[in-house]
């Protein structure tokens, strides 16, 4: 799987992983969240185009058949490529969006989920960074605290993943890698997917973050959790990053 992943263009490899997460009985929502919530708009366009070419079916349509409710609407919004391009920022709009988030959640009884997923699925990551700062200035609470108190289930998992990726993508993936190897057994699929997918993007930053968070190197932990050719391939990727 490591070698197959390295031989495929990144967008095609992600498509394969998304299809695998939805194919057959049951859906692996964690994989859908990890991939879709961490992509920029440009990366998303590549994935959407490749998915239809590879599977003769639009990604949005497949997602709709495998998910439901607000979680389905959020993922559909993300995959139709509605997020503003990186670098798109409007400080005045950020103040307005922070107010909208407050009024849809902590500022009322109950919560209006649609406001949360529309803003977090549409605004650029750069814009969201300003929105989250404005939210804290407005309320004295972080956006993470707001999400935790107002939402639950897969929608909460997806939106909190977007927040983590906005604030520090390497931290998000370092946590995922640690979870894949923590406890009894190893989540090989997640380990391979993250290391292969991020090898040409920010694996060095993920390595640095991992060591800072867990006081041990990613290389040493992977070395202790894997074996054979699979181990050698992953360690070569980590060592080269």
CATH class call of the largest domain:
Mainly Alpha
Q: In the CATH classification, which architecture of the largest domain applies?
A: Orthogonal Bundle
Overall 3D form: globular
Number of domains: 3
Class of secondary structure makeup: mainly alpha
Proportion of residues in extended strands? under 5%
- Number of separate strands: 0
Task: Write the CATH homologous superfamily of the largest domain.
Answer: Annexin
What value does the average pLDDT take? 93
Radius of gyration: 18 Å
The N- and C-terminal alpha carbons lie at a distance of 19 Å
What order do the helices and strands follow?
HHHHHHHHHHHHHHH
Residues in helices, as a percent range: over 70%
Low-pLDDT runs of 5+ residues are none
What is the overall number of helices? 15
Largest sheet: none
**CATH third-tier fold name of the largest domain:** Annexin V, domain 1
Keywords: Annexin, Calcium, Calcium/phospholipid-binding, Repeat
GO molecular function: calcium ion binding; calcium-dependent phospholipid binding; phosphatidylserine binding
Family: Belongs to the annexin family.
Pfam families: Annexin
């Amino acid at each position: 799987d490591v070698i197959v992943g390295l031989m495929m263009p990144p967008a095609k490899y992600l498509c394969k992983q998304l299809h695998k997460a939805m194919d057959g009985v049951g859906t692996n929502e964690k994989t859908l969240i990890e991939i879709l919530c961490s992509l920029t708009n440009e990366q998303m366009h590549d994935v959407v185009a490749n998915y239809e070419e590879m599977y003769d079916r639009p990604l949005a349509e497949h997602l709709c058949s495998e998910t439901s409710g607000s979680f389905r609407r959020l993922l559909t919004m993300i995959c139709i490529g509605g997020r503003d391009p990186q670098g798109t920022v409007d400080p005045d709009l950020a103040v307005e969006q922070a107010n909208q988030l407050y009024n849809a959640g902590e500022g009322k009884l109950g919560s209006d989920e649609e406001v949360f997923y529309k803003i977090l699925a549409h605004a650029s990551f750069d814009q969201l960074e300003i929105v989250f700062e404005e939210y804290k200035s407005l309320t004295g609470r972080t956006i993470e605290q707001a999400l935790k108190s107002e939402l639950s289930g897969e929608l909460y998992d997806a939106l909190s993943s977007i927040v983590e990726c906005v604030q520090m993508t390497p931290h998000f993936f370092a946590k995922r890698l640690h979870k894949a190897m923590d406890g009894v057994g190893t989540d090989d699929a997640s380990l391979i997917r993250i290391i292969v997918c991020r090898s040409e993007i920010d694996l060095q930053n993920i390595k640095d973050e991992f060591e800072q968070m867990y006081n041990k190197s990613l290389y040493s932990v992977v070395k202790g959790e894997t074996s054979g050719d699979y181990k050698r391939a992953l360690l070569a990727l980590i060592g080269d990053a």
